[in-house]
Description:
Blueprint: H1 3-29, H2 32-39, H3 43-71, H4 73-97, H5 100-132, H6 137-160, H7 165-187, H8 192-195, H9 206-212, H10 237-254, H11 260-272, H12 279-286, H13 291-322, H14 326-354, H15 356-376, H16 380-394, H17 397-405, H18 412-441, H19 443-447, H20 451-459
Helix pairs in contact: 1-5, 1-6, 1-7, 3-4, 3-5, 3-12, 3-18, 4-5, 4-7, 5-18, 6-14, 6-17, 9-10, 10-11, 12-18, 13-14, 13-16, 13-17, 13-18, 13-20, 14-15, 14-16, 15-16, 15-20
Amino acid sequence: MSGNLAVGRARWSLMALFALFGIVGTSWMTRLPSIRDALGVSSAQLGLILIVGAVGALFAVVSTGAIVSRFGSRSTLVAATALNLVALLLVAWGTAAGSVGIFAVGAFLNGVSGALMNVPINLNGALVEQQVGRAILPHFHAAFSIGAGAGALVGAAFSAAHIHISVQLVIVTVAVAVARALTIGPATVFAPERRAGATTTPGVSPADLEHDLAESPAGGATEPAVSGAVVDAADGAAGAEASRAAAGAASAGATGGSDGGSTARGARDTAQKPPRRGAGMRSALSAWREPRTILIGLVLLASSLSEGSAGNWLSIAMVDGFEVREAVGAMAYGTFVGAMTVFRFAGTGLIDRFGRVTVLRASGVSALVGLLLFGLAPQIWLAWFGIVLWGCGAALANPIAIAAASDDPLRSPARVSVVTSFSSFAQLTAPPVLGLLADEIGGRYALLTICAAMVLSLALAGQVKPLPREARTLVPERA
Length: 479
């Protein structure tokens, strides 16, 4: 398969996985009013129940970087797909039986499977972006938004047809699981564990290798395969580090005068030595000590509060705040994800032209104004306009943060895992807090508290500035 064809297949397959992620999650989250009624709980109690899913996500995401490094993206995605199928079937059972306990178990497993899915698809999206050589990661998140919008329409259609949420869950979950099984293979063709054992075509010059290591406009670097760099694929990303080390050394050997031959031989020797066991776990843990990674995580936390709170509470806030039907609340969330989708497709050009920092700051202002309009508007049409601004503001913060965490390809699995942990923490804390506030002051006013997160994002926007090339780990650290 040619390189361009492989990149194209990987790109579209990943877009499909992102879209399916949005469909399966949003289709039932937009029917939270029905779930609340089926379980016989209040908004505050539902918020406490939903926290179980966030606990599952947090439980999984802190170790997902090491899991991906050890077992690889493809195996992790297969396991996540199977677990998600079981989880949502339990959620369906719980709503059909009116059992909070069964629902909570399903929600916990859904959180675990979501974390196991989220890290590898974002990691592979960043790797494909590096292959393309320009910012396309927002396109993948736009695909998620398209899926979320489609999921909102699915939820609205099932609601309008008065079909029980449990029936909807079974139909959608099984269909999504089948579609995922068909797309995981081509989506992970550039995953570290699949490229680790690859060899380049004979005749590739050191100059070509040096060019491959150059910084791309997207803020990443392509990952070449090196002749003779056969490494242990079982160690996933750690194996890919050895391949890249050989590439850098071979390039240095071409410009190193009389020492060039010995340098290149040293590169081959290094590449042929498999990385030590446990290197992936140590790399994953060390990322928690990096100030820039932690601050990017806080940016993603703010983004997740903005986007996730809309997914959890926008439909309920519309239903309770303006006394409209559930289908109207679902359409309001569909408007939110529609705005995100349009801006995510348009945003790649904005990022390339103005840079991550400027775009992130503009996004924060848009989300802040939109939230204020939605929470304070006396009329529904003005609140709806606020939803559009809110969606536009929420569109690019998440992919920008993920891209910033992926600047160094060798450390990206660990760093993406760390920053997505902050997203899981947002999911852990927001549902119960917003649920309690919604019972006391109403859903619209409760969502105004997310404005504080937007201020945090504005303050930390400078942290997403691309790493300079000399700050990237072109040679892996020895375990």
